[in-house]
């Protein structure tokens, strides 16, 4: 079978490489010529653990091209993995998807299954069916299938090779059989359903996880006021099998290319159908507030950041990825800069991408120690293992005013208790933190 992947981002490239790993020969096409050139030269355009090794192992079975006619003319199955970003009104922008599907319809020379892996609003498959029937020559027959993707960045290879489930939204038994034959090496559970339900499963799943995160973050905010410890609360909740222990880590909110846009897209779709989704709206609102929680906490110590040196540890939206889309760093750093702070940053993977947005305005550091040296405030925005493993006494050793605001609860609360610095996290109070210390820092601040 000739398989073609359209779009070589996090989903497309990982899917292509994993399909090659289970024995398929895969052609990958992208409109981004620079990305394809890199892939032809065996350079990974994205960071994803295990991707490069699996790519190199299977490179004989992978082909990367930029010629759309070549991509579409002879394929049996085309997997569409293009982006579906957010429009200003919150709805999903389907331009890339429509462009790609129109081209398949124009250039395919034999019957072809078009598999939509991109996240798309319910009903998109039906629209695509209309598009292909208008664009194609009547000799070629197309089937549109919905096969939403559930991989997580940072564990994308593992998630694909060990899929929790494969959703097949299909109109015919034949298409179901072909797709099962392709995915056979992944050893997973299938859910076979109609196309609209498959499209809804993706949004309903992502939005539920976003909701779970916003829920624990609201509980954490209440813990801040009441003195309860949200980590223990989450452990206690997580033992209940009806709740489960994942996505209960309190912090400064979710980011990335999926949860923010997928919550907004579903909310938009609901409003469009006069059916308000109040829970999803709440998840969105809570998350917006949560992202700048540390700035609000910092204002307790500094009315203004003018002239202060602020260390930021972690830039990416989560560890294990170089992706900055919707990362809290992109909301916090502009506030610090506008307020006149000198910002120093460190991230093990994300700095090159950040430099494309802020080439000169901030200082990029090679180590955590260099970042916190002489800082008046430290904000932890991503829970990289290097941060969690650092010697916490380094904060008081290196910083000018040791105020550490941990947005990802990186440190065990016991490990920071009684140490010579101010430490605040999300939903966990350090009992016995010296008020003398706070007093000293306020005095320094006034004096400085
Ligand atoms: N990133 C994730 O973790 C993830 C997980 C599950 C689902 N998804 C969904 O999968 C889709 C892709 O996400 P992503 O993160 O891989 O996106 P991405 O932005 O990383 O990659 C998209 C790629 O598609 C290419 N492209 C755009 N238009 C094209 C066209 N007409 N022909 C060929 N290539 C084209 C772009 O150049 C880019 O390389 C989105 O709908 C997303 O919501 C993403």
Architecture overview:
The chain is an alpha/beta fold and 448 residues long. It has 3 domains: 3-193, NAD(P)-binding Rossmann-like Domain (Rossmann fold, 3-Layer(aba) Sandwich); 202-290, N-(1-d-carboxylethyl)-l-norvaline Dehydrogenase, domain 2 (Orthogonal Bundle), CATH 1.10.1040.10; 293-447, Rossmann fold (3-Layer(aba) Sandwich), CATH 3.40.50.720. It contains 20 helices and 14 strands. It has a 6-stranded parallel sheet, sandwiched between helices. The chain has a 6-stranded parallel sheet with strand order 11-10-9-12-13-14. A two-stranded parallel ribbon has the order 7-8. Helix 5 packs parallel to helix 6 (124-135). The longest helix has 32 residues, at 195-226. It is globular. 44% of the residues are buried. Residues 6-12, 29-32, 35, 81-84, 96, 99-100, 118-119, 149, 151, 153, 257-258 line the site of nicotinamide-adenine-dinucleotide (NAD).
